[in-house]
## 1
Amino acid sequence: MLEAQERNVYMHVEIADDVYWVGAIDWNLRIYHNTYSTHHGTSYNSYLIMDDKVALVDAVYGPFGEELIGRISEKIPPEQISYVIVNHSEPDHSGALPLLMKRAPKARIFCTAKCKDYLKRLYFADWEFTTVKTGDEISLGKKTLRFIEAPMMHWPDSMFTYVKERSLLLSNDAFGQHIASSQRFVDEIDEGIIWEEEAKYFANTLYPFTTLIKKKLDEINNSGLPIKMIAPSHGLIWRKDPHRVLDKYMYWAEGKAEQKVLVAYDTMWESTAAMARAMVEGIQRVGIAVKACRLSASDLSDVNKDVLESKGLIVGSSTVNNTVLPAMATFLEELKGLRPKKKVACAFGSHGWGGGAVKVIEKALQQAGIDVIQPGLMVKHRPDPEGLNECVEFGKKLAERVKQDEG
Ligand code: FEO
């Protein structure tokens, strides 16, 4: 009888002299953070830095712990690791720590004070910690690690580790993308996918914190630290002109977006959908790009990306029980949490005998900090030809407003 045989092949990758990717690829991850769809999977990137003292920056998600140990072991026995740098405590980067710390029992963990607190609450382990602040450095021998706190980029405990002699920024979640790939560098795959996933990451994870992010980007840009490579803890590594991703983050953090309108709606008997189609026509007539999505048929984490990339929003729902349809209610709650900056919006919808949805939408948009053009547009039952013309004009009006805003 033939027996199935496991063959473990681990492949570390040298990303800079004496700096090795030893992380793991999660080809099958499809949901992250409960609601974030990861169509391309992800990777958990971990970096081994060889020197007189050996450091490991970030671990991987728990189920991938043996892969991490396997890749480290291709270079050195794990017990030779002196320092484990934890840039962020969330389990996708720390889940393998209990296994790692068993295999490297003499290692000391370096992290922010908040990260230490969180790790203690997550793992109840008796590890040796050194807490660090921005500007603290440790020497590995010929190489120096410098720490840069980065709170809310994306947790309060987040930090970056900078490898001075390699001008290499190990940025943890920031500047990463949820992509599983056999390639390790951005320039080795289709950049269109990279930018899509960068935007989706920013929209779903960082959007509420743009003020802090802008400050942190200013700090990095003004620090004088040369950055030749940015290696995040998800996805692919920026080695050619990594400043492009810093610039893109600044663009989003400043609330800049394309001259584009997102028409997000939901509909019960297709009347609100007919209104949405007429609005799309109006927007197109002004020459502005438009995307329409029926929320109950859409992936909310993809819609969040479209919000990030659009200056204007037209939001519509049929009225049911004096309020909006459930998928719209979820979208509006999400918007209130994301607090998108510098958006302009208006509301619409059809109703039978009482039209509460438009008011609910307008209130929620205002609570999200969005500039709302009023009054919204309501139609009783079905829009007739005159009603559809009104919808076309309604779309044109918002598109004209978006067109005027060149910022
Ligand atoms: Fe906040 Fe990739 O974890």
## 2
Amino acid sequence: MKLKTMTELGTPIPSHKAYIIRSTKDVSMEQRARVLKETEYNMFSFPADLLYLDYLSDSGSTSMTDLQWAAMFLGDESYGRNKGYYALLEAFRDTFERGDQPRKIIDMYLTGENDVEKLMNDIYLQSFEGGFVNGGIYQLSRPNTFITPQGRVAEYLLFSTLAEVLHEIDPTKKYYIPNNGHFDTTGANIRAVDIEPVNVFDKTIVLEPFPAEEMDKSNPFKGNMDVVQLEALIQEKGADSIPVIYLTITNNSVAGQPVSMANIKAVNAIADKNGIPLFFDACRFAENAYFIKEFEQGYQNLSVREIVKEMFSYADGFTISLKKDGMANMGGALLLRDQGVFVQKYSINGKNIGTRLKEKQIVTIGNDSYGALSGRDIMALSMGLYEVVKEKYLKSRIGQTRYFAKKLAEHNVPVILPAGGHAVYLDMERFLEGTGMKTEDFGGVGFTIELIKHYGIRACELGPFAFEYDQRPPEQQRSILNLVRFAIPRNAYSRADIDYTVAAVVELFNHKESIPKVRISRGKELSLRHFQTGLEPVYD
Ligand code: F0G
């Protein structure tokens, strides 16, 4: 008898076992309705404890692994050069530079290594230079690795310091930073220092149809930067007006879509030709690497670790939120290539840019060995960097997101296809077709209100409400996508949870005429208003 394998049957092989359970509460629809009303129908102010499933963000909402919890116990809360600092710096080198040859010195801590000479030689007195993570004397003389509490702090550190340098070079010049999709905090941090963030992607590509049944076979890498637009921008503004080019992997602002290695190489070549440093917003690098392995020609036989190494070989620096990709619940970093283009270009007036960054880090965030993280967090993070590139985990992670999108598509719910890595996005333009709902009625928000009220599920509108459609000039209005995002926490939800969500979304889709318009009742002009405005559904 020839039995089919589970892969042939299309059923994923279990990737983990859950040993810690958190129970949900029995909350009635009436109770949720009351809470919604008293928290002004704002998704961010609804208490998480009263939900069944929470897709507000995949950021920091991951379930940590047993190895991460074990590493946490070894957290060292010393003020200077805690043990975790060394483990984390080595984990960065292992992950971003060493491919299949990690040193994994964290194991020496886990096994209680007592050989002092070995600890000194292999960890504490080892020097490194020439990569993203200088070590020993070189980290002191040419600092290039900056630990921060989360991604946006790394962005603040980078852009505020860069702006000071640019001001010293020419206080009158206008600067632009292109990105295949600025995340909102990235754009805001750039705008805050009077530099203009420019999005270099084509909205129409994201919305192009893609057959759901093709998702296991091919991928168009819709997260890619539009290199034609990039070259046109450089031509128009001049290379000296563009202090850095940014590439976000995966592209959260473009429905979580991956970026291909070919695109990374192409952008790198343009950056190189123009003497502009290329930075990654590396938030979900491991998920991006898995897409490359699955779908890009020539990469099937390489490990995710090797793919990550190649990806980062094209970057001159990166900011990263370590709350993504299942690394940990808290953490971020800024890393610069030692003596790279960025460091050389912006070390001016006798001052190394790394030294400037370090001084600001110490004054505003925390000392370089902890960057406002506890020693426990640092250890969890160090271990997390090894967990996140495990292919079995990534297969199950990407597979779950894809399953979610496929199920919705089977019920004809308009969903962006193919599915990205961390989230499923509904196309609310098409979802609400036939209801007479206008863009400024914020139907996506109305949908999320009903989803919480009826089914205890939180999702988030990323569309006309979040991106302030009504406050923007017409040329900017056109580029605003109308999406609702379900960001999936890692290792937290089961297939049954996804099925529950699909059933809820389908039921609302089948009764879309009951979705209310939404009015802003307080704080229409506030910036970042999805965090702070009051709303009110309008039921006919
Ligand atoms: N860059 C990208 C692409 C992100 O997705 C995020 C966060 C950040 C930077 C900022 O990192 O939160 O650690 O400060 N995205 C989360 C989300 C919040 O829900 O998409 P952070």
